[in-house]
Amino acid sequence: MNKNSTLSFYNSHAEDSLNSTKSNRLPKWDPFFKRFAGNQYLLYGLIHEKEGIHKLYEACYRDNLHSIWAVAELYRKGNTKEEFCGILEKNMRPVYDSARRQGYEVWIYLFSFK
Q1: How far apart are CA 3 and CA 7, in angstroms?
Q2: What is the extent of the structural domain holding 112?
Q3: In the 8-state DSSP scheme, what is residue 106?
Q4: Is residue 19, in this structure, part of any structural domain at all?
């Protein structure tokens, strides 16, 4: 595995095998997004705090960040957690809502997102 595929910072397309294990269903937005956004913010912090991680980000973001908003807004230095999560939700929620309107159901959790 090369360094470009080692860190995947954002990919809006889920793996087919991952989706098929959930019968092509979506997670409930609120518990999923809260945890997802928190994890993404931790990564964001590491990108800007750790030189080695920042170098990996620089080497692979062009191949892995397919949305202009992710580079221009989300991963720019200086976002607070609230700003970061707000940008992420503003851009991801419409995609989620569109999938729901197209008939994707919500999958049932067998564990908690506490």
Answers
A1: 7
A2: 26-114
A3: B
A4: no
